[in-house]
Amino acid sequence: MKNSTTMLGVASYLTLAIILFWLFSTQPSTPQQPVESLPLVIEVDTPKKVTELAALLVSHGLEWPLEKREIPALLIKTLPQDMPEIYSSEERKSIFLRTLLPIVLLENHHIEKQRVILEKMVTQQSEFNGQQIAWLEERLKHYRLSNKADEPKQLEQLLQRLDQLPPSLMLAQGAIESGWGTSRFALQGNSLFGQWSYSKNSGLVPEARNQGAKHVVRSFDSLQASVRAYMRNLNTHLAYKTLREIRSTMRTKQQPLDSIELADGLQSYSQRGEAYVEDVKLIIRSNKLTQYDNVELLQATAKVVASRL
């Protein structure tokens, strides 16, 4: 298996860096801030066997138990097809958590960079320039809000939607919805969160689908695409407004995001309602997933960044 190390999404990160630099440098009363370095992103070919994936994780510092506070953004495109053959439940969990954690951290990082820009713009006294308006309009569209960048109310709504989710919450839901990475939807469609779609050719038909039902479980090109779509779903759908309000209150009080409290906003995620919420909380607690909320991404050295531009 040939590993390929690349910087993913360089263009998007450079755009964010340029806007950040402009925002900081145009405020005369604020000292110029250094732009943060990019996270170390490592893409690899899809491991064919669990044994290959396990060795790959260890080779990049993702041993088990995972005790490091900084890890590279190791992007595994798809899970190996023999995931269901893992006999030990502990080993299955360890493989799944170490595979998914770098992906959710990278997606959170991407959202965090955008949120920094938005927070600065919300308090900006001067009018937005053309570049800022274009950026805002793109974000408003992505988060399914009215495309009116000059309305303060729209910025406040965007601020509530453009936000991170605790890794522990994402790991728990991914574990439940994909059977710790062993479900048919996860293995054949990279679908970790069981998202439905009503577009005929957009996913896999559930074997136990009720007669007359037309939904499919949406498929994705990669595990990262699945995580990104899931986060957008929680950050935009009306069904999860309560979750976003709970998160917004935590932000106002300058509290860390609490996955146990946020889980109360997931009643509409499953037909099981409150029972599903309790399952999410149980997975978080029994597997001590909140410890991963404090893990960060390794930063790429200037030499590595330069070699990828």
General description of the model:
By secondary structure, the chain is mainly alpha-helical. The chain has one domain (10-308): Lysozyme, CATH 1.10.530.10. Helix content is 49%, strand content 6%. The chain contains twelve helices and seven strands. It has helices at residues 10-25, 50-59, 89-122, 130-142, 152-161, 167-178, 184-189, 223-236, 241-252, 259-262, 274-286, 302-308, and strands spanning 41-44, 70-71, 73-76, 196-197, 203-204, 216-218, 296-297. Strands 4-6-5 form a three-stranded antiparallel β-sheet. Helix 3 (89-122) packs across helix 6 and helix 3 (89-122) crosses helix 8 (223-236). The longest helix is centred in the middle third of the chain and has 34 residues, at 89-122. The radius of gyration is 20 Å and the shape is globular. It starts with 9 loop residues before the first helix and ends with a helix. Mean pLDDT is 85; it is low at 1-15, 22-35 and 303-309.
Which descriptors would you attach to this protein?
three-stranded antiparallel β-sheet, disordered C terminus, 309 residues, mainly alpha, Lysozyme, two-stranded parallel ribbon, disordered N terminus, globular
Q: Which strand-content bin applies to the residues?
A: 5-15%
Shape: globular
SSE succession: HEHEEHHHHHEEEHHHHEH
| Termini gap | 25 Å
Strand order of the largest sheet: 4-6-5
Which architecture per CATH?
A: Orthogonal Bundle
Number of strands: 7
Instruction: Tell me the radius of gyration.
Output: 20 Å
Q: What is the count of structural domains?
A: 1
Structural class, from helix and strand content?
mainly alpha
* CATH fold-type name: Lysozyme
* Low-pLDDT stretches: 1-15, 22-35, 303-309
- According to CATH, what is the class? Mainly Alpha
Average residue pLDDT:
85
What's the main sheet like?
Answer: 3 strands, antiparallel
Helix share of residues? 40-55%
- Count of helices? 12
